[in-house]
Amino acid sequence: MLKKGKVEMQGTHRPFGLTLILAIGALAVGSAWALPGGDDGVVAADKVAKASRGFPSVVMLVPAANVSAPAPAEPAVLNQVNKAFEPGVLLVRVGQTVTFRNGESLLHNVHLFDLANDETVLNVAQPIEGWTTDYVFEQAGAYAVLCDVHPEMEAYIVVVDTPYATVAESDGSFEIMVPPGDYTLEVWSVNDKKRRQEEVHVPAEGLEFR
Ligand SMILES: [Cu+2]
């Protein structure tokens, strides 16, 4: 089934603003999102599959109970610079805008494939430096991002429907702050067709799965 998204395109010539650089920095370190409604969470930590070809795993804890946590208003940015996508793995929430940005004076494009069925969901040119294309994912899933101009360009977008998710370190370690409770732990890794999935209970003192 084709997953429908929302696309907005615009050509801009603005140089990088500080805000954008900070946003990319925050994504690069893979920090977990803040807890909805406060930070009275506990640490859930483990070690999952280590990075492969430079692509780290993504870990998500999907709460059994409904959690009201709107997607971040600020866009997640996938930059195109030095003939590479940055970051290589982008974690976004359902409903959060992804901004694809051409960060250099080269012709690129964005060719987005749904990994569930290999169907193209977006294929747009990014002709000049500063060009941006916005896209909103309306369902959770995993997507490959390629540039047809530069076959070496490759990235992945993991769209999650939980506020408790993070990009793991390259050695596979991660920490997520969560309220105590029952969760499904899911792990996305670039080499695994099937996600690791298990039910976990996070007690009041937190949990180290290791
Ligand atoms: Cu390119």
Bound molecules: copper (II) ion
Instruction: State the end-to-end CA separation.
Output: 37 Å
The main sheet comes to: 5 strands, mixed
Shape: elongated
Which labels suit this protein?
210 residues; five-stranded mixed β-sheet; 1 helix; binds copper (II) ion
Please describe the topology of this protein.
Elements: E1 6-10, H1 18-28, E2 42-47, E3 58-63, E4 76-81, E5 84-86, E6 89-93, E7 97-102, E8 108-114, E9 119-126, E10 132-136, E11 141-146, E12 154-160, E13 165-167, E14 173-178, E15 181-188, E16 196-202, E17 207-208
The structure holds copper (II) ion.
Q: Could you walk me through the main structural features you see in this protein, from its secondary elements to its overall organization?
A:
The chain contains one helix and 17 strands. The protein is mainly beta and 210 residues long. The longest helix has 11 residues, at 18-28. The chain binds copper (II) ion (CU). Residues 83, 108, 147, 149-150, 153 line the site of copper (II) ion.
Question: What would a concise description of this structure say?
Answer:
By secondary structure, this protein is mainly beta. The protein contains one helix and 17 strands. The protein has a single domain, classed as Cupredoxins -  blue copper proteins (Immunoglobulin-like, Sandwich), CATH 2.60.40.
